[in-house]
Amino acid sequence: MLIKKAEFIWGVVKDNQPWPVNVPQIAFYGRSNAGKSSSINAIVGRNGLAKSSSAPGKTRQINFFNINDNLYFVDLPGYGYAKMSKVEKDKLQDLIFWFMCDTHVNMRVHVLIIDAKLGIQELDREIIELLYRSQEPMIILLNKTDKLNQSEIAKTLGRTRLEVGDNAHIIPFSARTKRGVIEFWKVLNEIKRTKKASDNEGVSA
Ligand code: GDP
After folding, report:
1. Residue 101 in 3-state DSSP?
2. pLDDT band at residue 132, thresholds of 50, 70 and 90?
3. 38 CB less than 6 Å from ligand 1?
């Protein structure tokens, strides 16, 4: 996918932002340090667009990026950051759950970044459970595969598949080497096509 435009447009805190329902949203979640910002930057080919969750500032809000004037990339705050107080953690969780459960658009794809070395952790599981309920498509990026050998990648892939079943597309990924970027766009296009076809069926039914 040719990225002609990728720019930060809004930082959203709970309840404050209506957005156009007809612009598809690609929402990114991940434990702090899983490599969410590196993955977003690799996917759009722009270093420094999304900020690391260890950086101060824009990481406690939901950041919207305009991609090519026809897509929003939505960067949710990283969760599980060890240095955060319980009150702050609860506030972040509340913000993430509000976005997932109480906001609606015509098309949304959820992208969960997992550190392939660690696999799915407890907080990821909570996110995954809520996403199942939303019944919106989910992609899991097993990031940092450059740190693993082939058999370790196969193992983490197998474990993840066992855990999520057919509820998600799973892509071995590396923000560092850009492994999986092309596959990510392919999967996204496939999801968009399927959604369009089912919307059209609804219209003609
Ligand atoms: P975030 O907190 O989830 O936004 O994570 P960052 O994108 O800031 O990445 C956290 C750390 O992991 C940084 O030191 C990155 O350089 C590193 N990192 C991110 N993606 C990869 C990857 O694909 N491979 C390797 N080896 N390191 C990565």
Report:
1. helix
2. confident
3. yes
Q: Give 3-state DSSP helix, strand, coil % of the chain, rounded to 5.
A: 40, 20, 35
**How far is the centre of ligand 1, averaged over its atoms, from the C-alpha of 195 (Å)?**
32
Whether the per-residue pLDDT at 135 is higher than 80: the answer is yes
Q: Tell me, in angstroms, the distance from the centre of ligand 1 to residue 18's CA.
A: 31
CA of 38 to the centre of ligand 1 (A): 6
Mean pLDDT, all residues of the chain: 92
Closest of 78, 55, 75 to residue 10, by C-alpha: 75
The rounded distance, in Å, linking the Cα atoms of 104 and 34 is 26
172 lines ligand 1 (CB under 6 A): no
Does the CB atom of residue 52 touch ligand 1 within 6 A? yes
Closest C-alpha among 34, 24, 18, 196 to residue 115: 34
Cβ distance 99 to 79 under 8 Å? no
Tell which residue, 90, 15, 74, 8, has the closest CA to residue 46: 8
Q: Which atom of ligand 1 is nearest to the CA of 31?
A: 3
